[in-house]
């Protein structure tokens, strides 16, 4: 098996080397504890939806500089709904918001102002959060940013960095990390998840967080209102390890069942223990907690080498308990048509379909929620056959949801699927066992996927690695084909 050195990070395209840019950004960011005045941004920052010229940045003003360290502790087992009359701010990890205003300033590596907002008022109507739509940036360029808040006076500053996407015709290396299934009760320590430290060390251009970002229905307190749902997000993203990583690693976020409503949920489903909170309310909360544009399913390019397709698996699905048929769908007809048309039109060397749930599996026999299950057998077979007939060995499925790491190849169609596993070892479980008819790799531990694209002469190499929670490689698969540079005279940057 071919090997790509872990230290072979992608170089920067403007000004600095990739490693030099990361060193510059990390060196230039003052630790939160060292800021002279309180930042009033305990829930951190999320940078996402990167394009060659734009980014979306989520920020929130909080009452205090840090999350609440005391308060009602969350149960690790047998979670309960919040008692009537108990405010979420009474819980450990809470980050109550505060009226005031936010301002964002974006600068180049030379310190020149590239974009700046006016002061934007925030209030309880938006949970004191705002998403800045930054535009007019240069492709493949490193930027730092400074977030300020104010109430009666200007607060301290929160800083971070990101890099815009390269042009679609740029022949460049790419590094991406992917994780899923981060359960608060299964975090590694009081500071959060080791996997975020490992991803930060990996230095990807961006990460993919592909569902179950929080667990409304099985982490304490069980969500029974929008206020408690927001508490779950605030509590998770104020964890030190998570917040520190996301200051320098931008991302793209997708939801699944637990961060939408409840286990294996679908439109119209009712979970009595969560009443009066509803599925529809869950749909409304998610886009307020992550940087997200108008569509929950979307695609993006990262140079000539890579195009990623992010799927939405909850909003449009047929009820899980409906009889299987050609019309039964996880995605709905419009999203499925979009996916086929977008894959057909893509000129990228490699195409990665990012699905919150599996296409291949295999999964447990009693599951009734995904394309590896009998209840969605017809659509699953349709799409796997479509990939076989319409790709040139350049299209792969990456999925979250399953709490074990694996690489499977479906015997009938040859479709490759990589499951990233849970975000912590303690949350790894549930596998039906290794199946040698499918599995090329199977491991019941936590971790993440590290994806690398490397143009080499007229060839393009895709490397998909399973890493443990500390970033150690435990499996690697390498694919290679003629690259865009050889096929289309692509522009090497």
Describe the structure.
The protein is of the alpha/beta class and 493 residues long. The chain has one domain: Purple Acid Phosphatase, chain A, domain 2. It is built from eight helices and 23 strands. The chain has helices at residues 18-28, 194-202, 226-237, 240-246, 279-289, 333-345, 377-390, 484-488, and strands at residues 46-48, 55-60, 100-108, 113-116, 120-122, 129-134, 142-150, 154-163, 170-171, 174-179, 206-210, 251-254, 298-302, 306-310, 350-355, 395-399, 405-409, 416-419, 439-443, 448-456, 459-467, 473-482, 491-492. A seven-stranded mixed sheet has the order 13-14-15-16-18-17-19, covered by helices on one side. β20 and β21 (459-467) form a beta hairpin. α2 (194-202) runs parallel beside α4 and α3 (226-237) runs parallel beside α5 (279-289). The two termini are 29 Å apart.
In CATH, the topology is named Purple Acid Phosphatase, chain A, domain 2
Number of domains: 1
Shape: globular
Strand content: 25-35%
Measured on Cα atoms, how large is the radius of gyration? 22 Å
Helical percent range? 10-25%
| Distance between the first and last residues' Cα | 29 Å
Number of helices: 8
Q: From the helix content, strand content and strand pairing, which structural class follows?
A: alpha/beta
pLDDT < 50 stretches: 1-19, 24-36, 485-493
Give the secondary structure arrangement, pairings included.
Elements: H1 18-28, E1 46-48, E2 55-60, E3 100-108, E4 113-116, E5 120-122, E6 129-134, E7 142-150, E8 154-163, E9 170-171, E10 174-179, H2 194-202, E11 206-210, H3 226-237, H4 240-246, E12 251-254, H5 279-289, E13 298-302, E14 306-310, H6 333-345, E15 350-355, H7 377-390, E16 395-399, E17 405-409, E18 416-419, E19 439-443, E20 448-456, E21 459-467, E22 473-482, H8 484-488, E23 491-492
Parallel strand pairs: 9-23, 10-11, 11-12, 14-15, 15-16, 16-18
Antiparallel strand pairs: 1-2, 2-6, 3-4, 3-5, 3-7, 7-8, 10-20, 13-14, 17-18, 17-19, 20-21, 21-22
Helix pairs in contact: 2-4, 3-5
């Amino acid at each position: 098996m071919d090997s790509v050195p872990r230290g072979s990070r992608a170089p920067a395209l403007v000004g600095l080397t990739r490693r030099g840019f990361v060193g510059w950004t990390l060196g230039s960011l003052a630790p939160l504890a060292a800021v002279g005045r309180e930042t009033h941004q305990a829930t951190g920052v999320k940078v996402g939806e990167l394009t060659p010229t734009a980014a979306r940045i989520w920020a929130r003003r909080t009452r205090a500089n840090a999350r609440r360290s005391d308060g009602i502790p969350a149960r690790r087992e047998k979670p309960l709904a919040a008692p009537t009359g108990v405010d979420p701010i009474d819980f450990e990890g809470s980050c109550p918001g505060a009226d005031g205003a936010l301002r964002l300033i974006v600068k180049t590596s030379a310190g020149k102002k590239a974009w700046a907002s006016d002061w934007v008022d925030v209030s309880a109507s938006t949970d004191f959060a705002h998403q800045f739509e930054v535009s007019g940036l240069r492709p493949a360029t490193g930027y730092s940013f400074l977030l300020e808040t104010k109430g009666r006076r200007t607060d301290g500053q929160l800083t971070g960095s990101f890099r815009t996407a390269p042009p679609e015709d740029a022949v460049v290396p790419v590094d991406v990390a992917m994780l899923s299934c981060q359960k608060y009760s299964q975090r590694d320590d009081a500071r959060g998840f080791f996997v975020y430290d490992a991803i930060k060390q990996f230095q990807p251009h961006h990460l993919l967080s592909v569902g179950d970002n929080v667990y409304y229905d099985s982490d304490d307190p069980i969500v029974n209102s929008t206020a408690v749902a927001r508490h779950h997000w605030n509590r998770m993203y104020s964890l030190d390890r998570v917040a520190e990583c996301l200051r320098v690693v931008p991302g793209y976020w997708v939801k699944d069942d637990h961060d939408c409503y409840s286990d294996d949920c679908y439109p119209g489903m009712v979970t009595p223990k969560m009443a009066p909170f509803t599925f529809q309310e869950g749909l409304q909360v998610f886009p307020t907690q992550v940087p997200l544009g108008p569509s929950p399913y979307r695609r993006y390019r990262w140079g000539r080498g890579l195009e990623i397709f992010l799927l939405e698996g909850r909003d449009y699905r047929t009820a899980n308990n409906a009889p299987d048929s050609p019309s039964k769908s996880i995605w709905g007809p419009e999203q499925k048509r979009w996916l086929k048309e977008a894959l057909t039109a893509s000129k990228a060397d490699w195409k990665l379909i990012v699905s919150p749930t599996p296409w291949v599996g295999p999964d447990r026999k009693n599951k009734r929620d995904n394309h590896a299950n009998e209840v969605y057998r017809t659509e699953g077979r349709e799409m796997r056959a479509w990939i076989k007939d319409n790709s040139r060995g350049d299209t792969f499925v990456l999925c979250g949801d399953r709490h074990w790491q694996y690489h499977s190849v479906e015997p009938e169609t040859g479709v490759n699927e990589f499951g990233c596993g849970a975000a912590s070892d303690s949350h790894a479980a549930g596998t039906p066992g290794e199946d040698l008819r499918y599995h090329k790799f199977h491991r019941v531990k936590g971790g993440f996927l590290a994806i690398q694209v490397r143009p080499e002469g007229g060839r393009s190499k895709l490397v998909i690695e399973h890493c443990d929670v500390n970033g150690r490689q435990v499996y690697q698969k390498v694919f290679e084909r003629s690259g865009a540079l050889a096929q289309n005279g692509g522009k090497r940057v």
